[in-house]
Design goal:
- Keywords: DNA damage, DNA repair.
- This is 3-methyladenine DNA glycosylase.
- InterPro entries: Alkylbase_DNA_Glycosylase/TA, DNA_glycosylase.
- It contains 14 helices and nine strands.
- It has helices spanning about 15-20, 75-85, 100-105, 120-125, 135-145, 170-175, 180-185, 190-200, 205, 215-220, 230-240, 255-260, 270-275, 280-290; strands at about 5-10, 35, 40-45, 50-60, 65-70, 150, 155, 165, 165-170.
- The protein is of the alpha+beta class.
- Among the domains are: about 5-105, TATA-Binding Protein (2-Layer Sandwich), CATH 3.30.310; about 120-150 and about 165-230, Endonuclease III, domain 1 (Orthogonal Bundle).
Length: about 300
């Protein structure tokens, strides 16, 4: 199917499509995101003019292309350079240690993405609060299939060889109307579902955070009950292009960073202090560590349990 809108551009900085856009994928079965065998990345979004399906292609090392379908397609291709990190400038980043220097040298195309869609990033972040990632991804997949709409554009090959269109996540109005028993069926406890419904009712005000400074955006988001520093960082990493957004309060992060860089467990406060030399680029440090293959803390001891809220 021929795209309704297309744009090809040469990014201002080296950009690796796969590395840059990866954080938008919420698990291997994410119905709003797909990688295809030709190396393209597909995602759905809601722009100010409507829904869109976007296909991003790494044409060459120095060239990217975005194709789009749907009423929001023109906006989606216009925004594509920003989504793929065109506003991210790593020039001020100083690796300081050999491990990060090597990772930075080997991954020059890793950019901090910026979708500009605050509420779009907020809902899956809330679903990931205080549960294992697999459980959150299952809830996300179930809810979007149940309440999202079919995306415009071509159907894509899926598991089993059946071609299906992607889905677009529900509008704030639709999220606000999801009944309590459907949240229960999706395995989402009342605290998280209540946070999403409350945020959905204030989505217009929350969306304004996309044009604010990181500090003001954080303050706006944390006005919502149930939205704390961890959730704000997860949103900022995807919607706001914040290279410094560190997910403080994460179940694993402080110990992962502590062992990867200093060989020991760390509390969140210790991690924050130890990351001071990389202020402004702390999320970039985390992303670069992820490319090195370092394991962080040895996987011994208790893990966060899987809690089946459908059985409660």
């Amino acid at each position: 199917m021929i795209a309704e809108h297309s744009r090809t551009w040469r990014p201002r900085h080296p950009t690796d499509l796969q590395q840059t856009i990866g954080p938008l994928r919420r698990g291997p079965g994410d119905p709003t995101f797909r990688r295809t065998v030709d190396g393209a990345v597909w995602r759905t979004t809601r722009t100010r003019t409507g829904v869109a399906t976007v296909r991003y292609v790494q044409v060459s090392r120095d060239e990217l292309r975005a194709d789009a379908w749907g009423p929001g397609g023109r906006d989606a291709v216009d925004e594509a350079p920003a989504v793929l990190g065109d506003g991210d400038d790593p020039a001020a980043f100083v690796p300081r240690i050999a491990l990060l220097d090597e990772a930075h040298r080997r991954n020059p195309g890793l950019r901090m993405l910026r979708t500009g869609r605050v509420f779009e990033a907020l809902v899956p972040a809330i679903l990931e609060q205080k549960v294992i990632t697999l459980q959150a991804h299952e809830s996300w997949r179930w809810l979007v299939h149940r309440f999202g709409e079919e995306a415009p554009g071509p159907a894509l090959p899926a598991v089993g060889g059946v071609a299906r269109r992607l889905k677009v996540q529900p509008t704030p109005e639709q999220w606000a109307l999801v009944p309590s028993w459907e949240w229960h069926r999706a395995g989402v406890d009342p605290r998280r579902s209540r946070t999403i419904v409350t945020a959905a009712r204030h989505a217009v005000r929350l969306e304004e955070a996309g044009g604010m400074s990181p500090a003001d955006a954080a303050a706006r988001l944390q006005v919502m009950p149930g939205v704390g520093a961890w959730t704000v960082a997860e949103v900022a990493q995807r919607a706001l292009g914040d290279a410094d957004a560190l997910s403080v309060g994460d179940y694993h992060l402080s110990n992962y960073v502590g062992h990867a860089l200093w060989g020991r467990d760390m509390t969140d406060d210790e991690m924050l202090e130890a990351m001071t030399p990389w202020a402004g680029h702390r999320q970039r440090v985390v992303r670069l560590l992820g490319t090195t293959g370092v394991q962080g803390k040895p996987k011994r001891g208790p893990r966060m349990p899987f809690v089946d809220h459908r059985a409660i």
